[in-house]
């Protein structure tokens, strides 16, 4: 069941334009009048983005990390205070069910994820507790803002902290909540998880200190350009972690640690990593903007009339023009002539990680067979 977040109070800020009602982002501003300038501000200066429709919950209890380690794909058992990671929940066949970001701070694990998937993730984790000392609980009184840009350090006085943390690091904010550094969608990206009652106060303080208002259009365009998939948009019910570039621990900015076991779906992850190849790969597409109509997320990508992939997020980038993320079959060459609905499409060669090198496990099997 789809969950619709309540409209953000930041939508009342002058110039805020909400996303279309059917969008998963309808609760927050899509832009503030100049989407391309907002993207440039996020890359060259510092911009603030309202992402308060994210679903936030906490996990308390002495065994919160050791328990979460056993039911998810990331290595989090030894996560230190003030450290964060990205994580996945997989089904028994290794297909991605949920993607979430977590932060360990002051004896509590903070989790944020997509609004329409948060309740299902929280319900699954609650059912998996059994006898562990871990208590997942929704935190509706907290919300997410994001700061993007190389001049974020100029906001330190307004933030009330002395220094910005390193990647996946987190520091407590005065009055509750924390600031966390992320490796995407830009090299200088920060999330604030703050009391929802203070959301507008934080927005006002940070914009008065120099942060420029940017809508979710800016965040999404930069995310797509950075090849960071969004679950439910750039994935489908068949997506496995290798297809979506989620392999790796925090050091690799991934969500699936390969040096751990004991989680649902690990057999598929290990088999693909050691013996096979994922059937699809995530790429960046450049779209022909001259077409009158646009495709939509989920539309097929075709080559010579044959379906070869699935279209994900479609967005206009301030420098790249119309772009999209897509899952395409592994056999599709990087220079293939593609169509996305009425638009011609081409794979960005710099985004392609096509690799036919046999895995070490496959080579070992062949050696045992005398080949």
Automatic annotation (TrEMBL):
Annotated SUPFAM superfamilies: Folate-binding domain
Sequence ranges assigned to domain CAF17 C-terminal in this UniProt record: 280-342
Keywords: Transit peptide
Record GO biological process: iron-sulfur cluster assembly
A Pfam family this chain is assigned to: GCV_T
NCBIfam families xref list: ygfZ_signature (TIGR03317)
Protein's recorded name: Folate-binding protein YgfZ
UniProt source species: Nocardia donostiensis
């Amino acid at each position: 069941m789809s969950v619709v977040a309540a409209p953000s109070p930041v939508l009342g800020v002058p110039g805020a334009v909400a996303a279309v009602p059917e969008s998963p982002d309808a609760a927050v501003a899509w832009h503030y009048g100049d989407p391309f300038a907002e993207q440039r501000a996020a890359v060259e200066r510092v911009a603030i983005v309202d992402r308060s429709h994210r679903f936030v919950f906490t996990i308390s209890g002495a065994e919160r990390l050791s328990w979460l380690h056993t039911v998810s794909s990331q290595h989090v058992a030894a996560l230190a205070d003030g450290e964060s990671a990205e994580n996945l929940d997989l089904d028994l066949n290794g297909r991605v069910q949920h993607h979430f970001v977590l932060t360990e701070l002051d004896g509590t694990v903070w989790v944020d994820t997509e609004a329409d998937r948060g309740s299902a993730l929280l319900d699954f984790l609650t059912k998996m507790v059994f006898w562990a000392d871990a208590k997942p609980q929704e935190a509706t009184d907290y919300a997410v803002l994001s700061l993007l840009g190389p001049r974020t350090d100029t906001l330190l006085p307004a933030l009330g902290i002395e220094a910005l943390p390193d990647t996946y690091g987190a520091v407590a904010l005065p009055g509750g909540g924390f600031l966390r550094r992320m490796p995407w969608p830009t090299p200088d990206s920060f999330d604030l998880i703050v009391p929802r009652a203070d959301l507008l106060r934080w927005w006002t303080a940070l914009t008065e200190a120099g942060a420029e208002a940017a809508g979710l259009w800016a965040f999404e365009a930069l995310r797509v350009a950075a090849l960071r998939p969004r679950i439910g948009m750039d994935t489908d019910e068949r997506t496995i972690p290798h297809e979506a570039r989620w392999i790796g621990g925090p050091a690799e900015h991934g969500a699936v640690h390969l040096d751990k076991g004991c989680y649902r779906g690990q057999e598929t992850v290990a088999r693909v990593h050691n013996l096979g190849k994922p059937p699809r790969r995530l790429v960046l597409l450049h779209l022909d903007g001259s077409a009158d109509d646009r495709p939509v997320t989920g539309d097929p990508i075709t080559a010579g009339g044959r379906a070869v992939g699935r279209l994900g997020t479609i967005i206009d980038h301030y420098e790249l023009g119309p772009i999209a993320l897509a899952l395409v079959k592994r056999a599709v060459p990087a220079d293939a002539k593609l169509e996305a609905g009425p638009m011609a499409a081409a794979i960005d060669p710099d985004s392609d990680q096509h690799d036919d090198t046999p895995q070490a496990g496959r080579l070992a099997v062949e050696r045992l067979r005398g080949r």
